[in-house]
Structure formats: structure tokens, C-alpha cells
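Milestone M4 deliverable, item 7.
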Amino acid sequence: MRTWPDRNGSAIERFLRQRRMHHPQTPKTYRRVLCGFQDVVRRCERSSSRVSLQTLKGWLQERGAEWSAFTLLHRACIIDRFLDFLVREGSIASNPVAELRTKYLIKGSATILRALLAPEPDRALEALRQLPQFGSVLGDLMRNHVALMRTRGFRYDTNTRMFLRFDRFLQRHPELANEPVPVMLQRWAAAHSTAFHAVDCELLEHALAKARHRLDPNVPIPRPNLHPQRRFARGGIGAGTDPAQPGGGGSATGVAPTSISRKRSAFCWTSLVRIRRHAHGSARSHCIRCWPSATAPDCA
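Output delivered:
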């Protein structure tokens, strides 16, 4: 059984051999950093095959007085990768950075290490805490629906992200836990005033109704809008309130869009929009970037 810290530095050499390093100076830097960290672990830890969070904080404090913040963060990431390697080969029980990633639901180690370098690490780590996925009152319903659709062969990535946005909203508003689903959707729709969010709420209502209908056939499924993206593009141009803005309800020059080009995606803001000049009565094509300027040249 392998243990670490070792006396001959074999674990460091095994780690360096499995890394792809293109510059001849890189292995020397890695070896110097890892040997220094191994000395700190040997000095602070009483039992082998164990690296505690306090030991890692002690190493950060010692090296913080010698290196810049950027250099310290980069070399702390080297330590994190080395500890992950030791965990995989069974030399240590756990990586303290990986435990913090699991505890606070953070994917990247650099974010955790930046928090450990803060003047108040505990408060910085607590500020990073993420909400658990599907942890709301409707979390089980949405999780099971996503799993069902994926077992049927659908990737269902877009709807999963839509469900997760709604789930985080419900977790941040626990007062909605006892409210009916239509009230939850109404509060979610009122959270933002953009046209994209309005379409997102409509798609969420339809997907959530399908999930509820699978459990209760009495739940009605609203009729889906076959072209929500096209309506979003129209709303993004003409549904606002400020006529002087490109996303407002009109144009200061009296120019109004009448149709959307079908050749390009309606979500692409560089798609062509057919607009009609009331002053001259002629239809001309302009790019969204030029609209609503009546003096802008033709973009296509």
C-alpha cells in the first residue's frame, strides 16, 4: 500500500511522468513547488496519508508572503492536481479542495482557492455556496421528468437548463412552497421583463404541464406556440415601451418592422428584418444594427 509523504519523492516523480509538459523548465518548477508542499505536510500532519484543510491553509499563508497572488493561485492549482492524483492512486484518503468543491457545489478548484486566499476564508466560501440542483418543492417532479425524457432518447438539455433556472428561483423564494403551480409561474414571469424571459416562461409552462399531466391526467396541457422564437424576435424589436431604443415599441423615424427573415435564426440579432418606410412607401432590407435609422444604407 502506497503512503504519502514518502522519503524518496517517488509520488512526485510518478505525478510528473503522467503530466504532458512541453517546456523543459516546467518539471523543475513543479518539483520545487511539490517538494515544498510535501515538507509542510510532513511538518504539520501527525499521521501519514492525510492532508487536512488547515495544512493547506498554512502552506498558502507561508507562500503568500513570498509569491504574488497570481503566482500563488497558479501553484496552488498544481497542488490541487497533485492531491487529486494521490487520491486516485490511493496514497491519501481525500483532497481537502475536492471536499470543499462537493460541499459548496463548485466545479472549479480555482474559485475555491481564491476564497481560501481571502482575508476571511470562511465568509468567502459561504458566499460561493450554490443551490442544489432540483432542491425546490417541484425539484423531484422536474428531475424525474428530465430522466424520463432522456431514457426515451431525448437529450433534453435546453429544457433541463430551463427547469434549473425555475428551480433556483423557487429555492430563493421559499414563501412560494405552499402556493399552487400557476401562482409560481406567475411570480416567475414577473421576475424579469425581457421578451426572452416571457417566451422562456411560456415554454416552461408547457413542459411543466406535461410533467404534471404524466402523474395526473386531469392537469390540462396548454396549446404550445409553434414559433416562440419568431415571436420573441418581433417582441424584442417592437414590444418595448421606449420608441427611441432598438428594442422599443417603435422608431423615432416612423419605421416599423413587418416580417422576419426565415433564412436565419430569429435569435440572431444580425438577421435581416424587412422594414417599410412610410414616408416613401418602399420596402427595404436593413440589418438590426442599422435599424431604426432611416438614413442607414442597405445592409443586404
